[in-house]
Amino acid sequence: MASLITGILLIVSFILFIIFAMRGGNLTVGFFVMAIVWTIIGLIPLHIAIKEIFTDPVLNYGKTALYIILGSWFGRVLVDTGIAGSISRRTQKVGGKAPVLATILIAIITALIFSSAYGVGSAIAVGVILFPIMFSMGVPKKVAVSVFTMSIGAAMYINPVLFNQFTVFFKGVTWGDHYLRFGFVAMAVQMVVVVAMILFYGPKIRNGKPIIVEAEGDQPTKEVNPITYVLPVIPVLLSIFFKWDAIPALLIATILAFAMTGNMKSYRNFVGMMNSTAKTAIGDIAGLLIMLLILTMFQSAAVHTMGQFTNLFKSIIPNSHLFLIIMMMIIAPLSYFRGPLMLYGAGAATAAIFTATGMFPAYFLYGLMVVPSMMAISADITQSWNLWSVEYAKLETKTFLLTGLPWAWIATILNLGAVYFLL
Fold first, then answer.
1. Band of the pLDDT at 328, cuts 50, 70, 90?
2. Cα separation of 174 and 240, whole Å?
3. Is the pLDDT score of 49 beyond 90?
4. The dihedral formed by the CA atoms of 201, 202, 203 and 206, expressed in degrees to the nearest 10
5. Model-level pTM greater than 0.85?
6. What is the 3-state secondary structure (H, E, C) of the chain?
7. So where are the chain's domains?
8. What local confidence, expressed as pLDDT, does residue 290 receive?
9. What are phi and psi of 188, to 5 degrees?
10. What tens digit of pLDDT does each residue of 144-199 get?
């Protein structure tokens, strides 16, 4: 009877959390309340809760927090040193005669930049450069926004910063060849879908009406040496070919960006540039860091509590990998609005349930949950940089969702197939 009551309370609280998340509730508050509620429901002793739920997970998250900080800083440095702007303006020169080709190049550039750069601040800083370029070429706003957000989403498959955030849900999943062979395939698949979307809207792009948008006053306009254009992918290349951890890889790329753009010629200028970019970058992701620290508490509470129902879940969850993949292909949009398939939402509890059963390999579960989450990151309005993009372009939310959803869903279906064959 006690187990039945506990199970009912968990289900009710889980449903209430889903509703809260999907209605735009603050996730930091939601995760903290859920951590407390599930600790109480699970009758976890106070001394265990204090140490194993509210202390150790947060302390152990320090390494991942550094990944997020350095990724955000690197993205800000790419913008403030003029590298991102220079790449974008060179692409714009193609736009007059071949706007479709230029749009494809912008999508590729966006993906390359965010293969290492991270954070809403970086997305905004790059977006205020790229959107005016696309609008001036006649790219319809709904297409420009979806191209931008889905290209960032594609890059997130190999972004070491986001990868290290998601591994908190799946113990044993590490950055390396086993994951990257899937990550690069998934990124390529989504970029192919983005290109297909651009070609689909090709006639509207070629016949679009140019819109002139004033550039942001604080955006660097200087040109830099084209050799700096390789810097956005340097951290990933160092990780792949030299097996470097993301922290030194991001740090060396950031230092190279300063040095190769002349920002280290003067000690005073270098220190000023370093401090300003770091301050802005950390401010951009401060709220995210707090939310993620609280999320580790909820994740630990979920694991402790769900462990009591392992046998029950084993009897309910189908043990067929193929069946789960097909099911996820169908219900993938449940990741939208922070739903039960979005790891930065109610999906945190779903992941805890899957993990608690011990029925599936960690890498398979990672792919099973991350691919739908990437769908939301690419085309859902609750993702921070997607919301900013929609507001910047003065685009209706409904238009954004209807434009991006079909293409993001296609990419998700294909990448879930890749999970089955590669993970």
1. very high
2. 13
3. yes
4. 120
5. no
6. CHHHHHHHHHHHHHHHHHHHHHCCCCHHHHHHHHHHHHHHHCCCCHHHHHHHHCCHHHHHCHHHHHHHHHHHHHHHHHHHCCHHHHHHHHHHHHHCCCHHHHHHHHHHHHHHHCCCCCCHHHHHHHHHHHHHHHHHCCCCHHHHHHHHHHHHHHHCCCCHHHHHHHHHHCCCCCCCHHHHHHHHHHHHHHHHHHHHHHHHCHHHHHCCCCCCCCCCCCCCCCCCCHHHHHHHHHHHHHHHHCCCCHHHHHHHHHHHHHHHCCCCCCHHHHHHHHHHHHHHHHHHHHHHHHHHHHHHHHHHHHHHHHHHHHHHHHHHCCCCHHHHHHHHHHHHHHHHHHCCCCCCCCHHHHHHHHHHHCCCCHHHHHHHHHHHHHHHHHHCCCCHHHHHHHHHHCCCHHHHHHHHHHHHHHHHHHHHHHHHHHC
7. 2-422
8. 87
9. -60, -40
10. 999 999 999 999 999 988 898 888 778 888 888 889 999 999 999 999 999 999 99
3-state secondary structure 279-313: HHHHHHHHHHHHHHHHHHHHHHHHHHHHHHHHHHH
Amino acid letter, 320 = S
* Averaged pLDDT, 43-51: 92
